[in-house]
Amino acid sequence: MKRLILAVLLLVLAACGSATTPTTVLNSSNSAANTLGSLTIDGSFARPAFAAATLMQTPTMATTPVSPTMGGGMGGGTMMGSNSAAYMTIRNTGAADSLIAAATDVAGKVELHTVTADGEVMKMEQVEKIEVPANGEAVLKPGGFHIMLLEIKQDLKVGDTLDLTLTFEKAGKITVKVPVQMPSAQ
């Protein structure tokens, strides 16, 4: 009987996942809503984040230095402070295009970024555009290209959804629903 209870408990724990190994659920919104010409946006998600105003209202946190990536860095923790990031895969069945801008009402500023290695140090830098090759894809993921959401205006909690408008050089604009969730271990 104890073995049966232990086996059931282990199955339940395995189904729930581990706090140190978060999972990513692909964006399950209507795929037609995420198609713009030859481009399809799939698997979008944004990291959780706390609005800076919220931190200042919490006495215990107001005195704690806040790092934009406290709790796991680029590889997968909860975002703290006034920044977050959005990720997705942009598939292209036509001619080459480029993501040139993004916008959302939940951030004061939105930038396109990448992560580069400078010796043994990883650093984030803004880019003018993210190329989407002809008949290929651009993968925006932790540790690579991503959309940086700066000056967050409201808390972004797991389970929330935000509207993110993407602007492409040739295809134009599309607004996608982006769920807030923890990134998967890469």
UniProtKB/TrEMBL annotation:
Alphabetic keyword roster: Signal
Gene3D superfamilies linked to this entry: PCu(A)C copper chaperone
Keyword Signal recorded: yes
Signal peptide: 1-21
SUPFAM superfamilies: DR1885-like metal-binding protein
UniProt-recorded name of the protein: Copper chaperone PCu(A)C
Protein species of origin: Herpetosiphon geysericola
